[in-house]
Amino acid sequence: MEKKTIATTRERKLSKVASGSSYSVTLPIEFVRHLGWKERQKLDITLKGKSLIITDWKK
Which domain covers residue 35, as residue numbers? Predict the structure, then answer.
């Protein structure tokens, strides 16, 4: 049986949240599963140049 691989890049659109004070981006489910992340999990978001880096939150 062939091991399924995931592509490392996907296009997503930026959406404004109903409150109007922030934005959201949906993440591909295969990325979330691969990283072992769960719903409502805390994440760190870091601005590096013109990129965002999203990592698991560490205490």
Answer: 15-56
